[in-house]
Amino acid sequence: MPHRVVMETTLTCSMVLTRKKGYTLIEMMVVTLILALFAALITPNLVNIQESQARRAFSTKVVDLAGNAREMAISRHAIVYLQADTSANQIVIKQQVNDSTYTPVDGNSASTTSGSNGENPQTNIGVAANDRSSDKVQLTLPLAPGVAFGNFQLSGQASDASGWKLNFYPDGSCDGGAVELSERGVVRSLVVNSKGGASLTDGNIPDTSLDKWPAGNYVQRQL
Q: How far apart are CA 82 and CA 4, in angstroms?
């Protein structure tokens, strides 16, 4: 009889210990709910932090992009320009092909010709022809998340995305222009002056009407 009592007691204790090793369905559901609520609280903050970091990096890169275009124009002895690609939401650097035909300010067309050494072309710079399909993309910079194009300016005049072609020339000069970049109602403007210097300013495009070449909006440049 005593042996039976001992065995029953041992069995009962074993069952109690076995039950304490696991979790009930309710306990698992509570834990899962707590984890889900915690994730819902911190995920938006993580996303906001990542987007904020991306926007800060973009602010630096977009100014550097204008500098890269200027350096390419000087080192390659070619016309290099910035353009807004609204379909892909990015800014691109393109190098203009040397055999382009232009329409200067006086309305007479002028084609690219070779220089005295037969290598470096000379071009009467004016308004470029519409067909720029042969120009080569050199660099692209996608806009940061939440950033969108706003107003455009070229040579002190209002422009649009399709007509915004900001030229940099081999002598380091530039047509001068700007583009607004807006994000959640906050506007910043990439401004490039006629000397090719770029900056990112707060607010809408500033007045750049005084930033022109003494000879006018367009001058003849030697490549």
A: 93
In whole numbers, what is the pLDDT of the chain averaged over residues?
75
**Whole-angstrom distance, CA of residue 146 vs CA of residue 104:** 38
Rounded alpha-carbon distances, angstroms, from residue 85 to 46, 88, 118, 158? 29, 6, 34, 18
d(Cα 114, Cα 118) in Å, to the nearest integer?
Answer: 5
The fold of 6-202 is minor pseudopilin epsh fold (3.55.40)
3-state secondary structure of 111: strand
Mind listing the pLDDT tens digit for each residue in 150-204? 999 999 899 999 999 999 999 999 999 999 999 888 899 999 999 999 999 999 9
pTM (two decimals)? 0.62
Q: Are 176 and 192 in contact (CB under 8 A)?
A: yes
